[in-house]
Amino acid sequence: MARYYSWLISSFKFYLNNVKYHRDFVGFGTPILDINLQGTFSIGKRFWFNSGKYHAMGGRQQQCYFVVAKGGELTIGDNVGVTSVAFICHNKISIGNNVKIGINTVIYDTDFHSLDARMRNSYPERLDGVKTKPVIIRDGAFIGGHSTILKGVTIGKNSIVGAGSVVFEDVPDEQVWAGNPARYVRDNFVYATTA
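^ Acetyltransferase-like isoleucine patch superfamily enzyme, sequence as received from the core. Prediction below:
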């Protein structure tokens, strides 16, 4: 029953926020959406999410936040699973197919505030010149829980980001990175199975 309730309320929220989505998503809990009418948010097939303290028993759980500012473009591919994430999109966030993103991970494509102290400390605060850059998560990537992905980052195909990492530079395909700041750990070996 909880799954149906989550699906119904989430579908209504998606509809009200002009989100392009497929009806085959599975949601436990409901997300928080703030989608500007001049931004876009699209979700691929078989999207799966856990949102909120009763549906994400991993500690430091929250509802999923999907925020798209004016002119922003948030795209989630097919067969993507997330838990208690926050995606804040002022420019572009693109998540490929078969991506898994762990609990309490945040992805920001913006600095939010000016790096110029005069603008940042003015009253009211001046936001012109705030830097944004796209974030790209390629197919098959896995991002461990409690990670922070910052603006301008590309996470390569089938790469892994260790739990609790802060990523501010590109992660190449098929590699494992971890830490704060995230650094190369090793290649991500793919083990073939035999029938």
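The first strand starts at residue 26 and ends at 28.
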